[in-house]
Amino acid sequence: MTDATTDHDVIVVGSGGAGLVAACAAADRGARVLVLEAADLLGGTTALSGGQMWIPGTRRMREAGYPDDRRDALVYLRQVTLGGTPDEQLEAFLDNGPRLADYLEQELGVPLAAVARDDYHPDWPGARFGRSLEPMPVPTDDLGELRDTVATSPARGPLTGAESRTGLDPQVLRQRRATGVRTQGSGLVAGLVAAGLRRSVEFRTGHRVVGMADGENGWSVTARRADGTQVHLRAAGAVVLACGGFSHDAGLRRDFLPLTEILPLGVPTAVGDGIRLGLTAGGHLRGMSEAWWTPATRVPSTTPGAPAAARNVVRELACPGSVLVNAAGERFADEASSYNDLAKAFLAFDPATHTFPNARAWLVLDARFASRYPVPGVAAADPVPDWFVTAPDLPSLARKLGVPEHTLTRTVAAMNDHADRGIDPEFGRGGNGHDTFNGDSTHGPCLGRIETPPFHAVPITVGMNGTKGGLVTDARGAVLDAAGGVVPGLFACGETAAALMGPGYAGNGASLGPSLTTGLVIGESAEIRDRSSSA
Questions:
Q1: pLDDT tens, residue by residue, 301-343
Q2: Three-state SS for 518?
Q3: Which residues pair with 492 in a beta bridge?
Q4: N or C: which end of the chain has fewer CB within 10 A?
Q5: Which residues pair with 375 in a beta bridge?
Q6: Taking the alpha carbons of 242, 496, 57, 158 in that order, is the dihedral positive or negative?
Q7: How many whole angstroms separate alpha carbon 92 and alpha carbon 476?
Q8: Spans in the chain with pLDDT lower than 70
């Protein structure tokens, strides 16, 4: 069953941050814009995220007293990307990123603040302090009937990233909950959707795009609704593919990612739709073996019969009084390093055993740690849940884990010695500003003794917040074919496009910053204006 064709100038497939910015920017240039979202809620993985954006050289950065230099940023990005991203794209990001930040605040009404933290590799040439931005609390009064359709993370309360570290007056927190104020990624999406509504952008949820073809009169797009009916639409100007990566598609994961268990986070609609659509239209792919890696664990649901939730694990690994060990009971990385880099250590391959020896690991902690710091799904000082492995001493814990007793006890003894000396000679944990930011600032280094029984272990494995591989685009976000030519009227951003960061991760928000910047450039594209006005 189908319905009649409906015309628009620009159709954006997906409602994550990048697609929403593209929609607003195109509408500002007079385009009739439609946003199609496969899920019932708007926001994609952006809405579940912290909402931070890594953008060098912004006005907010300067106002906060954090100096920057474009040349240094380029040097830093070249090292982060291992030279895999063309300079043209890196420079386009550096030129347009500050404009994006101003556009968000001054035109779209999304308030931002600089984040007081280092880049993820503070010792590298060109690194700086304060390059990340985060959205301030966003009211939802202007969303009207779409207010309840903006997704939010069940793991994040209505606090900013800074407030999640410092705490917030309980009365303010209650007021935000009562009035529907959004923060972090959900706040960013709420602000962008409200800005789209003010620009007459049309939103349709529950519309999964299943086909498209380019013709003389623009793109014809077919979307399937939840009831099985199909909607035929036309984009006279352009189609923007911004519908996520493939982290929840088992087949694509098997084809492109390492052959070990990987916990997918993000929204379940990230099944590679945009990538397949782009390939059918003539695009090609890059970076399909890369993802936004993170250590992760499964948190059992408190609701009977409900599945466990995959959660990323970050600060728990950096706080003093814990150690991460593999199945042999040995450390294998700096636990406080950036989650993308740390998770890559889980994927190290041992040719002698033909295995990934770090793929299944354990976060070992003691009673003192459990009383001071949260672990995913468990607040500090809450009773230790039964899904933790608990024992009265380390040898008993090792036996329960199936880990060699002597190795685990030796590893913990070494960590205790590092804590006493205040330095980690093995992996440098706590040796730079990024590590200490993730740790406990009241404690100093990220090192602490593990000695107070009972002892606990939490299963940790590699996860991914999303995938990095996708359609190859140019500096304008236009999809390229295998010969390097532009596929007319087709653009891609967000996780549907190959990530600007390549295999690396520059700093807090290094996925959203470049993605939203590309969204702005796409929305400003002359091709969108030309095709729309000539249709």
A1: 877 777 888 899 998 899 999 999 999 999 999 999 999 999 9
A2: helix
A3: 241
A4: N
A5: 378
A6: positive
A7: 8
A8: 1-5, 444, 526, 529-535
Residues 6+ apart with CB under 8 A from 406: none
Angstrom CA distances, 320 to 173, 317, 431, 447, stand at 29, 8, 13, 4
Count of alpha carbons within 13 angstroms of residue 432, beta-carbon side: 19
Spatial separation of the C-alpha atoms in residues 217 and 534, rounded to whole Å: 9
Residue pLDDT, tens place only, 465-505: 999 999 999 999 999 999 999 999 999 999 999 999 999 99
DSSP class of 205: S
Query: Which two three-digit tokens encode residue 130?
Result: 């304060």
Rounded-to-integer distance, Cα 505 and Cα 234, Å: 37
Run of H or E residues at 406 = helix 405-421
User: Cis link prior to 454 (omega < 30° from 0)?
Assistant: yes
The total number of residues shown for the chain amounts to: 535
Tokens of 460: 């940790």
pTM comes to 0.95
Q: Which residues contact 343 (CB under 8 A, 6 or more apart)?
A: 293, 294, 295, 462, 463, 464
User: How many other CB atoms sit within 10 Å of the CB of residue 534?
Assistant: 9
Residue pair 528/237 in contact by the 8 Å Cβ criterion: yes
**Which H or E run includes 492?**
strand 486-492
DSSP 509: T
Distance CA 392, CA 455 (A): 6
Can you list the pairs that 346-354 forms with residues at least 24 positions away whose Cβ atoms lie under 8 Å? 346/293, 346/295, 346/461, 346/462, 347/258, 347/260, 347/293, 347/462, 349/258
Position 99, amino acid: R
Decide: helix, strand or coil at residue 399.
helix
